[in-house]
Amino acid sequence: MPQSDELSLHQQNYLEVIYALCRDHGHAHTKAIADQLGIKMASVTEALRGLAARGLINYESRKEITMTADGQAIAGGLERCHLILADFFHNILGCSEDRADEAACRIEHVIDDRLKNRLAEFAQFIRDEAESGSGENLIEKFQRQYRERNSDDAYHVDSDLS
What we know:
Elements: H1 9-25, H2 30-37, H3 41-53, E1 57-58, E2 66-67, H4 69-92, H5 97-107, H6 113-131, H7 138-149
């Protein structure tokens, strides 16, 4: 099975969109993919052929597109990575949901599994410590201290304009 790091950023983005469409509708269509990515259908068709050649999707012209088990595994891994990163940025660092999601979209394609897992474990450790009642909530303390030291930073929740 190919790994996500063997795919280009564009191929990974296509897989994520196809994965979401298949999850929501049972299949995907070239037009829906083009609409979601904001690109021309001809570009989508070329990319779909490449993903099908790698065994990641089932694709025939003018038919419903579905994912293979390998494609689902890669796309599911990217989605899990995105969720871990977005959670860390929003719930631990205090970024707005939009900024956390935007940063996760960028980083999920380049972070390795060991670092991703370490962030997830750290986030859980911080939550567990905060819930243990052994003192001040570390997450709130960090977010408050960060805001005080970086009042001009546009990346924390209080200063987001969106």
